[in-house]
Write a structure and sequence with these properties.
This protein is mainly alpha-helical. The chain has a single domain, classed as Tetratricopeptide repeat domain (Serine Threonine Protein Phosphatase 5, Tetratricopeptide repeat). About 70% of the residues lie in helices and about 0% in strands. It has ten helices and no strands. Helix 2 packs antiparallel against helix 3 and helix 6 runs antiparallel to helix 7. The chain is elongated and about 50 Å long.
């Protein structure tokens, strides 16, 4: 029987006050409020919606706001909307690894662990900012698939990228 362990987007928010899937934006506007909502495990996309509708966001900031709204949508359980936003972000800036890590989390919540693994790997390959988070999430997905040896390796890799990352240390010690 599989046990459920939420991916880092939820776990980190509960345990350390930070999330990895959101992307910071410039300025002090609705896009910034959207980032803050995503970073605080929020589920209110109002600032994100306003930003995308009214602000002249271009390039990275527009893509980042779509990623941030996807994180908020995921927090609210609106997984289809989150996937749509991630598609939009990818069409603008396919080099942002957080897109794929966020999509991996959506797949994880849908119990599609193989798909989640593939997306976490894409996020790592794209060079996302917080590599330790993607390796941790890989470990969680691998555990769900019963691939314990690989999960241990993923947690060890997470610790390599963030030696003080207690969640990875705790998961590793339990296996």
């Amino acid at each position: 029987m599989r046990s459920f362990f939420p991916p880092l987007v939820a776990t980190l928010l509960l345990c350390s006050g930070t999330a990895f899937a959101q992307i910071s934006v410039t300025g002090n506007n609705n896009a910034r409020q959207c980032f803050m909502e995503a970073a605080s495990d929020g589920a209110d996309s109002t600032a994100c919606d306003k930003s995308l509708e009214t602000e002249m966001l271009v390039g990275r900031d527009r893509a980042a706001t779509y990623v941030n709204r996807a994180v908020v949508q995921t927090n609210a359980g609106n997984l289809r909307a989150a996937l749509r936003d991630l598609e939009r972000a990818e069409s603008l800036r396919p080099d942002l690894g957080e897109i794929y890590a966020s999509r991996g989390n959506v797949y994880f919540y849908q119990n599609s662990y193989e798909e989640a693994l593939a997306e976490y790997d894409r996020g790592i390959e794209a060079g996302m900012q917080k590599l330790h988070a993607a390796h941790y999430d890989r470990g969680l997905a691998l555990e769900q698939l019963g691939r314990i040896h690989e999960a241990k390796e993923a947690y060890r890799e997470s610790i390599v990228h963030a030696p003080e990352f207690e969640l990875a240390k705790a998961r590793l010690s339990r296996l």
